[in-house]
Amino acid sequence: MNRKHDVVALTVADPAERSLPALGVMNLEDAETGREAVVDTGDRAFRKSFSRRREKENEERLKFFKSIDLDHVDLATDRDNIVPLIGFFKERMRHFR
Fold first, then answer.
1. Using CA atoms, how far apart are residues 49 and 37, in angstroms rounded to an integer?
2. What is the pTM of this model?
3. Which terminal CB of the chain, N or C, has fewer other CB atoms within 10 Å?
4. Distance of alpha carbon 95 from alpha carbon 20, whole angstroms
């Protein structure tokens, strides 16, 4: 895809989505599917499993980007993203000269 077009994937992560706080029993809804589940966030094993799944999803996304030779920038909601963006595009300018 990026051979015809100049495409860059921007991944915006929210630290709150990486791990669950220990708040006890909660009803969670998947925003994409609407599926609901009752979970015990106080269960350390459940929280650890949740974090591992999130890490695996991130690894799979990075593997996919690499497989299609797609540049990407990881951004986060808890920090200033200007510096990583400027650095990325400066590096691209050097690479494409």
1. 15
2. 0.74
3. C
4. 40
